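Data availability (excerpt). The following record was deposited with the supplementary files.
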Amino acid sequence: MSDHPPSALGRNAGRKVGVEIEFGGIGTIETARIICDRFGGTVDRSGPHTATVRDTEIGDVSVELDWTWMQKASDDGGIIDQTKEVLAELGRDVVPTEVVAPPLDGERIVELDKLVRALAANGAKGTRAGLLNGFGLHLNPELWDGDLNMRSLRQVLQAYVLMSPTLREEIQVDFTRSILPFVATFGDDYLRHLLRTDYDPNMSGLIDDYITFNPTRNRELDMLPVFAHIDGDRVRSRLTDQKISSRPTFHWRLPNADLENPSWSISHEWERWLSVEALATDELRLRERIDHWAQDRARPWLERI
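Predicted structure:
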């Protein structure tokens, strides 16, 4: 039985957050040594482009040159396939080194900000350092048992799609990242379905609807990990061609990895995510936002521009 309070939503302290950060410019072994300098531990080199820094102050940290990044894009043809070919030619300069930190208490994310600054000081290049640097930051906020219900997850999805345009404008999502499919928006058809005032499915219906409109991992907020945790058989029977991890977390992949900006921080991106959960848990404000969205959509198109 869990000792947690009923819900993790909106919480910073006492709640774990997984962090994945991508960057270029330095390889896995140099990155691992920088992690050792910052957090202690020892480097366990498991391959030419993979390593684990064990027994650091924050736990085991994995580092790898993510060559599979080029394969994550579906074969959509056109500019995506052309971009993948260019990336393959350029190699490590645009294929990210990825650091995966163990889940940390939200209050400890600031420690990773110090690592970011150390990486940047040693030559790590972020999203905006090159035209083809489609690097990103992924956050995996922990969910507790009281969150694994239709109502809570529906409200987070609703809050997110309502806030997505503002988040994209504030983050200024990098052009390369925007043309690759990893952070694709939710389509208008799903928004119309999800933001119906009478939308009240059961959990199976919420999962089925999500997959019907979003049969892919490539969304700015990927709900498949938590849905697979709740009902793995249902998810995998619908998406037999995709490898889907199962874990009780959200998977938010929208932020850039702006290492070259000294004012950029993982902590600030975490605060952005918490603002989504704040809207999701304020039912009156969420209902007002949904009603306003519906009213706006009902206006003639020319009046909305």
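Summary of structural features: The chain has one domain: 16-304.
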